[in-house]
Structure formats: structure tokens, C-alpha cells
Fold each of these.
Amino acid sequence: MTPGVLTHTVQDDETGERLDRLIAAAFADLSRSRGKALIEQGAVAVGAATITDPSYRVKQGVTVSVSVPDAADTHLEAQAIPLDIRYEDADLLVLDKPAGLVVHPAPGHHDGTLVNALLAHCGDSLSGVGGVRRPGIVHRIDKDTSGLLVVAKNDAAHAGLAAQFANHTIDRVYRAVVWGSPSPAAGVIEGNIGRSPRNRKKMAVVEETRGKPARTHYEVEQRFGLRAALIACRLETGRTHQIRVHCTHVGHPLVGDPLYGRISAARLYGLGRGSAEFVRRFPRQALHASVIGFDHPKSGERIRIESKLPNDIIELTENFQP
């Protein structure tokens, strides 16, 4: 996005709107998250006053000014890491992320991430898009979750995609192998998700006054007796660890999940020795982002990409079969 000062006069029907929401609605090239960051950095003024609270409520007739800085140097190294790109144009790309690849740099993972690979693939055009540490990243999936991810190549695409995520119009389907045999065969899991009060490393379903509302639709695709099942989950919301937490909450944690799905001897009872050992040693949560659908932020065309189950999850299901 071109640096400079953007201005907008608050209209009558915008009175009382949150400042971060107003910015996202008024300026097509700024996502809500980008607007929030600029507010907190002191780059937004309402009238003559600098406002640093994203939840500030605006009044009719005042002028909101946003100072957009030059794209910050990411200080991240471009690394030629192979990418499985399923769709690409001048504005965005969709890739199939392998399990084990971290999406963006974080403590303990300063390089070798998807962002490093994207910087090498896209070049300087990606720098600054979506923030310093996460250029191009509109959403993310866990390191050990495989599957489809959409990446923005410019601020306009980032804002357009981010708005669809915020409005829950992105179509996202995950496939997972869970312990047990969910009943009924299809349904909805609801429950606010927040930080677990017992373990700060975990998320949990919490009371309605805490956390954020979350809703997961599921359908059983294949049962392996009463021991396990392959299910499809469609996200209506996108909370941290949502599928892992919701499935655990209803008594069907994901196979291989090191945080939420402990393996007991009873779960493995009756499997052949080789199969039991394979399941016990499965190195990640059996979760794959298999479908992503969205409206192209420039053309408006509906794009829907599908990804088949990876070989490791296919082999896992085979070890549950007689």
C-alpha cells in the first residue's frame, strides 16, 4: 500500500462504530488487524487527537486520519523452501502446507518458516503486507496441521481476504481422525473457547462470559469400529485450536494430538502389534485443511480449492482397519 495520510469523515450511520472497524470499512486497502496495529502505534487521529484505543467509538462528523508508513523492513531472510502451490495470480496464492512447517517466525522458529519461503517466492512485493513478522499471512494453521492456506500478495488482497474471515464467509473444511465413534453421525459443536484455567499452554471450552464464541459443524465420513473415525469439520468460526478443543470437549480428541489427545492402553487394545505401534508413534495431530473457498478480493470470482488427505493420515486410517 502506498504510504501517506488517509482521511475519512464519519457519516451518520457510522456513529458509535469502533475505530478499528471503521478504518477497515472506510479504507479498502486496510484490514481490521492492520488498522488496529496502526491505531496502537499512534498513527491514527480522530479530529486533532491521537487515539491509541482500537475500541474507541467515533462520532458523526469528525475526521479520521490514518498515517500509513513506508513498509517496514521485515529483517527476515528469503529462503528457497519448496512450496506446493495450488493456485496463484498477481494478488494471492493458495498453497498446500506440509505438516511440520511453521507458518511465521516466532520464538524458537526464527527461520525455515513458510514466511521465509514466501519471501523467496514472491520477492520484495510481499514485504510489509500484513505486518512485519507475518507478511502475506491472512490466517494460519498449526505447525503440525497440514493443508490449504491462502496468502495475500498485496495490501488490497490482504484487506479483502481478512474481511471475509472476519465475516465468516470463507469456506473451510478440515478432515480429522478422532478417537471413538461420534454420535450422532453429524452435528454441531458449540462452546466459547479461551485459555485453559488449568494449563496456560492449552485452550479449552470455557463459560459464556469468557473466551470467544466458536461453532464447528462435523460429519462422520468413515468409522473404524468404535475405536476411531474419520470426520469432516466445517468451521463457522476460527478460534485457536478450535477443532482440537471442540472434539476433545465432546469426548473425541484427535489421534496423535500431543496436547489434547493422550493415548491410553485401552485405546490401542485389540490392534495388531504393528498397527498399535504405528498409531502410538503417530507424530502429529491427524488434522488436514482439505478445502478452502473464498471470493477473489479483486475479481469477485468464487475460488474453491481441495486437497486430498496426505499419505501419513491415509496410512493411519489403514492401521485402524481390520
Amino acid sequence: MTVPRADALLIGGGIVGLATALALLRARPGLSLVVLEKEEGLAAHQTGRNSGVIHAGLYYKPGSLKAVMCARGRTLLERFCEEHGVAFERCGKLVVATTDAEVPRLDELERRGHANGLSGVRRLGVEELREHEPHAAGLAALFVPETGIVDYRRVAAAYAREIARLGGEVRTKARALAIRPGDATVVVESTAGEVEGRVLVACAGLGSDRVARMAGLDLDVAIVPFRGEYWMLAPERAHLVKNLIYPVPDPAFPFLGVHFTRRIGGGVEAGPNAVLALEREGYTRTSLDVRDLWDIATWPGTWRMASRHWRAGMAEQWRSLSRASFARACAALVPEIVAADLAPGGAGVRAQAVARSGALVDDFAIVEAERMVHVLNAPSPAATASLAIGEEIATRALRWL
């Protein structure tokens, strides 16, 4: 039986996989391309479960992949949305210092923002802070005007429509079961049948390490999932937040802390926290998968990570269990908020790559092998930077075509 063939195979129908497919088709018109997505629909996990922020690029170390790709990706994303009728808004955000210890950290964030090419970033005193967000409290703040909001599910759907227009194919309910690299091609066996390609690109998100190992790669990282839980402000209290309000992030921890985001479709979201998830696609506190739990427990990096960050982890866990505790974290930024103002929102799971040493991989991580490119770590701002990441991955993949 003849196995169907394509020039390029992609595993993963999230925003990075779709952006990569789009970049390949734009770079090489007429290319035959197939995207394999295991779910019934696209953007089912990280892409469709984030807070919808278009990041400006304030936080990232100058020169890092995150910094470079966020800057270019934001420009490309906004242009794409304008051309394809996807609603977005450049509304700006505040990063607020609420303690004396946080004020000096604003200096470093401001320096990074300027080094990363951001326009209009400026320091605010208490009175100027209140002009932007009348109900916020803090000792000082940074205003970042280039931050925006969008619905990434709609962005992903628009990417998929453009892929189809350019001749690519997206197959859903096509979970990769086996990968057989060869000298001239790579064969992927999936629940939708086998397909053979001259190059394979894997953007598998929460399953990225498993797909890479399935393809024969020897990795020094593994995915450890962290669930982020959101709350919504009650409609009658949504006026307390005009746009986006963030705390000063802890430089030792790769999460941004509880913050407020006005959604493009309406409403204000608070969160997320960051708690260890016992299932890679576990969006509730009771979610548990035996295989996922075994992988977490047997990865040496998990325990080394826990020994470094257990205090922060316990605090995050308590905020997950206690609405009052979560409300207090919110009140650090907007003091009028109390527990009764919060209604349960959604949840997402972050695919956090953790090294064997216990280090949390902070930057984008892309590895190559014979006729293969694997994205092993694509944390925030991956959605913002998706088109730029897609261009980079496509450049690497095209060497085999």
C-alpha cells in the first residue's frame, strides 16, 4: 500500500504550528504540506486558553529569542489581524510596584524595554498611575503603550484559512502514534493514517518532549505542566480595571504573577496562578493522568526544581484552594477587590520545559535533527511571536527541501 506523501509534515495545530505551516507555504509556493492535529479542532490547549495579550516585549533579556521574536512577531501579528479582519486593540498596560523592594526592579524592566526597541515606555508616579487606572494602587509604575489584546482562537482560525487558501491541508483527529525517520523522508503514523514527508516539524506543545523522543531524540529536558487558573471580575465590578494591570515579576520565577486583563470580547480576567498540574491537559483541580503523573515524578528535574521553588509553589497552591487568598493577591494591585467580586473563570496548562538540573527553561527552545525540527519550549510570548517563530522554524525546515 502506497503511503501518501507531502513535502512538509507538521505535528501540532496550535498557533505556533499553524504559523509555521503558513510561513512554509509563503516561502515556497506550491509546497505540499499537511498539518496533523490530534484534537477535533484547532487551538484546543495553550493557544485557546491564554489571556489573549499581545505582548510588547518588556520582560525579555535583550538579544534572546524571546526578545527578538516578540518584537517582530507583534508587528507581523497586528498586520495580519488588520489584513484578515481579526479584531485586536493596542490598549497598553501598567506594571505596578506595590512595595519598596519592587521599585528598583522597575528600572531594570524599563532598561529592557528600551533595549528591546519599545516605544513610549515611561515611568509613572502615584498620581499618573491613578490617571491611567483610577482604582489601582502602587508606589510607582511603568506604562507600556504597545501591549494589546486579541482572541488567539480567532487568530489561529484565520491562519488555518490562509493555509487552506495556499494549498496546505490541516487534518484533525490525527494523533501521532509513531515516527519513523529515514534517509530521504520521515513517516508519521497517526490515528488518521500514515503520511510521509521530506521534512517533519513538530510543534506539539504539551506533548513536545514525547513527540521528540518518539522521533528518536535524546533530550535533557522534559515538559512539566503547570495549571493557571483564572477568575472573572463580576460585571458590576469590571469598571475597577480599565485595561491591563500587572505586578512586578519575580526574576527568579518564570511566571508573571496574578494580573488583570481586559478581554477583547468583554469582561476583565484576573489571574493566573501557577500550580503543578497532575495531567498535561488537566484543567481542573481533580484532573489526574497516571502516565503524566509518573513522568512528572520520575523526571529528576522535577525534584530539583521543587527544592528551589517550594515556597513559591506552596503559595500558589494555597491561592488555588482559597478564593480569599486569591482576592488578596488581586487587592495588592486594586485594593477595592474582595472575594465576592470574583467568579470562576477558565484555566490553562503551560507546557514548561524543565532541564534535568531543575532549571526552568525560560527562552524558546528549537532543536534540529536529520530532516526534523522540534519546538521543545514555546512559552509566552509565543502566541504574540507566532509568525516570527514560524519564519525561523520554516527557514530551518526549508534546508531539507
Amino acid sequence: MSKIFKSPAAYVQGRGVADEIGEHTASLGERAVLIADEVVLDLVEDSVSTSLDKAGLAASSVEFRGEASESEVDRITEFTRDRDADVVIGAGGGKVLDTAKAVRENIDGGAMVSMPTIASTDAPTSALSVIYSERGEFEDYWFYDEHPDLVLVDTDTVSDAPVRFFRSGIADGLATWFEADATYRSDSDNVVGGKPTRAGHRIARLCYETLREHGRSALDAVERDAVTESVEAVTEANTLLSGLGFESGGLAAAHSVHNGLTQLEATHDATHGEKVNIGTITQLVLEGREDSFLEDYVAFSREIGLPVALSDIGLDDPTDDQLETVAAAACDEAETIHNQPFEVTAPMVRDALKTVDEIAERV
């Protein structure tokens, strides 16, 4: 099979770039729909609409109701079709961006703009949507032929968001290297349907190195709503490097464990990245990493405030039945856990989850 690398058409990042969205979007269409939740609409609707209007684009807005579910996609698709829009702009976190991508797909053409207001996931750059039930349980990945036409990240907005989201993005980004490397070693397929390129593999590594080198100081700055060079570096890693790294590098166990954890209602208050960090530690246990490596990763996670035990994501003293539910879902035949360079079974995942808690108590 061929090696494949794919990416968005354009990526723009910096202070105040939200006010320039019209300039970067003018060539993409004539009528835009902005999709965002109530909080984000209050933050960006006026500036985005003004910028689009100056660029000659008619703009409408629709409120996102909180879950990237099939029913929500259908509702916003109908709104977008009614306005004959040819540019779909998603502003906010990963779920609204995934919804916007699905809406663009449903209207059979047009352009899509990702405008993340938090650096919490690698969703902005990807050509896929993670679809959940209306109760927040993982259901499916929807894959598309087209990537976003533009990813626009305003670091002023990112630094003003709750620091928990920024920290969550670091967790999601840290997983990128371990999953891409597992996919590369097993010669499995990446997310865009080919074998990983050396570029995808190295970008994933750069993502990890950037987060380890700049994560602490970037969090210190975001705690004070400040934008520093470390904030710019981590925002790029959380968004661009992680997005390119997971798609063109590949996914493995960490995200499969995340998907399994979503089956338990007790985890629903944990963010995507927080659950992914438990998945990353689980993957490292499955791989038999040496004690010093595991201890270093857990210690770094603790230092920057990431969860390292099941109790940190709402699972206090989980039962065997609960762990088996997570493990069975993580090992579904369609899951990326099978990109590990060895066979993974549900009992192995269950026991790795138990070991994660033991390591957290010890380190």
C-alpha cells in the first residue's frame, strides 16, 4: 500500500487573527454559517460577522447544543441548507468543529473553516468527526475526503480560555507520538488510509518534544491569560502537530482506551484529553515500558496537573465489570488498538488499567 500524508489547505495562528477571518475566507465562498455554543458566540460572533461582512460574505449564526451527535449534525445541516451557505465555520472545541465538518460533508461541497477557541484537542486540522450518542458515549468515526480549507487559531482567545482545556490539549498531544510510533513499528495503516510517511512519524515526535520542553511554562502563562512564545509553541503542538501526527502518523491504544472509558457514565465529566492520558499510560503498560520511563511520564503528568489514576477521571474503586466494559469496547474489531505491534486482547487491557492505578499510587 502507498504511503499517504494529508493536511488542511491553510493554517493561521497568532494574536488577534480572529479579526482577520474575513481576509482569509474571502476566496472560499459567498455565504457563511458560524456554528458555536452560546459562550463562544458571545465571544466571537460580533468580530467574526464584522470581518466576514467587510470581506463581502453574508453571515448567519447557529447555536451548537453541546454534543457531536447525529441528530445535532442533522439539525444544523438543515439550518445551513436553508440559508444556502457555501462556507461552514466551526468555532469552539473539538465537538463543535467535528459537527461543522459533518455539516460541510452533508451540504455536498463548499468550504469548511476550523476556528478553535481552545487548544484542547487535535480535531481542528483533521478530516474526520468523532460522533457520540446524545448521552456522550462514543459511537463512531466519520471520515471525509476533504480536510478543512482553513484552520485559524487566535492565541489571545486560547490563552483566555480555562486552563483545564489547554492542559487537556497537552494530554491529547502527548499521546500522538506513542500512537504514531506504534503504528509505524507495526506497519499498520494511518488514519488517512495509507502507510505512515517519515514526515508524519517525525511530526508526531516533534509534537511530543515540544510539549515536554514548553508545557510547564506555557501552562504558567495561560494561568495568567498571557501569551508567550511557549504558549504559541504548545498551541501549535496541540493543534497542528498533533493533528497532522495522528492522522498521517496513526492512532493506536491510547485513543481506543479513551473510547472504552466513554462507555462509563462516571467518566463523562472528564475531558477528551484527560481520558486520553489514562489511555496513554495504559498503552505504555501494554507495551511493557521500563519502570523508569513509566515513572517519568506519570511524574510529568502529575506535575502539569493531568490525571494518572482512574479516580482522577471519576472512576473511584472501579469494579471488574466496569473495567471489562471499558476493555471490551477498546478492543472492538474496528478500534485502532489493533495498530499496536502485537496482539491486544480485552483481558490485557483490563489488567493494564488495574496496573495504571497501582503505578499512580506508587509514583
Amino acid sequence: MTPDLNDVVVFNAVVRESGFAAAGRVLGLPGSAVSRRIARLEDDVGFKLLNRTTRRVGLTEAGRRFYEHTARLSDAVTEGMRAMNATRAVPSGILRVTAPPDDGGIIWALLSGFLIDHPNVDLVLTHTLEKVDLVSQQIDVALRGGPPPDSDLYTARQLFDSRLLLAASPSYLALRGTPTRVEELGDHDGICMDPWAPNAIRRVRGDRSYVRVQMRNRVRANSLATAQQAALDGLGIAPLLHLTCRTALESGRLVEVLRGALPDQAPMWALAPLGRQRSAAASALLDHLVEAAARLA
């Protein structure tokens, strides 16, 4: 017979709390109810799981093996119930979020829309390129670019997947010429994204293979908005995200050069730490980010 999952949760609480009464206090059950559930579980599995004395409760060998295989399941059920209860609550309180430096207003457009829809939520936003520890820093949601994050540590939901490109202003290209081969980039000024490309654009696709090109870095910054503005001001060729410079390209204020020279995509993710009860506000923000990003893209 398949045991009742609730009885398994009670059994694991008894083991963790080393007693029926202590487990009952944690679960909000009287000791007699805990005892009945353990007896029913032992009948269902066909083994004695606990040795009971007047002073302590200990595991039998069968109980030890059963606990080793069900402890994670019990924790997952408990966290799942907490998460479901959180979704029924009204989003409120302080929401701590990290995000990359200014990206042309896209991140703020996502977060501002959420705050307008949820007036009881207050936002603490930290702009950083560092991969901070979400648990130790008590971060609810992190917006990050790059490869897929470690699924053992985070819940990850992809928001965007924008291509990288090289762009410059028409005035710069009129003055310095438009490169037609990647090898010609060495004769141009660059606007690089520290620490993304501190000394050169890392990989440029040439006719036959990837080429590393050393450019004079007129500006080095860790902000897409700053890099784009420097390109608009005619200071050089910048690696940019199509998502953030699309409007400038469409209006002709920026011109893409050597299309396809940058082979990389630049996905952005919304992360939340696993193993911690998520607030109603954090759950609501994750859902909002995915929906709003789809509209923006």
C-alpha cells in the first residue's frame, strides 16, 4: 500500500525534532495525532520505523533507510505548500532586487510597471555586474545576463535573448570610414564594456576564423547606456545589444557595421534562490517580468 504523504511528513518531523510532542508543536498537531499517524505509516510500509522509550525516540534500521530516502521529499512538500500559500497572499513589503547597470531603461520599465500594479511593494534595487550571493545578501530576485545559471542554486526564467552587434554613428563613419573586413577594426576607435571586454573585443568573426582585434579604447564603461551614448557622440565603434539600441538603429542615429561579426547571444535571466520560502511579492515579480519582457521584445 502506498503510504499517505502527510504521514511521511509527520514521520520526518518526529525524526528531526527527536520526539512526538516536539514534532506536534512544529506541525500544529496534538501528540496523540502524531502517534496515530506514525502507527498508520508503519502499517502501510510493513516495517517498524521508530523505537519508542519513555525518554527518547530512535530510528530502527528500516526507519533510518526510509528517512534517508524521504527527507528531501518531505522538505519539498513543505516548501511547496509554503509557496502555494504565498501565492494566495497579497504582494507587499520590501522587495530586494539586483540588476546590471543602466541598460537604456529596459530594466526600469519592467520594474516600474510591477510597482505601479502593486502599490504595497517597496523596491530596493542595486545595480551591479557582480554575481552576489542571493541567500547571504537576502536578495529576492536577480536580473543577470550570460549563460544559463546553475539550476541547483536558482529558479531561472529567461527574459530576453538579444544578439550582440557592432555600431557607430554616421558622423564617426563619415570621418573614419566604414570597415568592410574585421581586420580593419584595428584602425578604429573602440568603446568597450569593462569588464566584459577590457582590452579588446573578445571574438570577432572573420572570413575564415575568429579574429582578435586590438582597438584604441576611447571609452571603457560597464554601462550599456554609457557605451551607446559614447557611440552616438561619435567616439568610436561599440559592441551593443540589439535590444537596447534598436530604436537608434531604426532612426539612423546608429549604423550597424560588419553585421554578424559578433557571434554571441546575450540572454537575460530572472533568478530567485532555491531552498528559501519565496514571498508573494517575489513570486508575483517573476511572473510579471516574463510577461512584460515578452511584450517589450
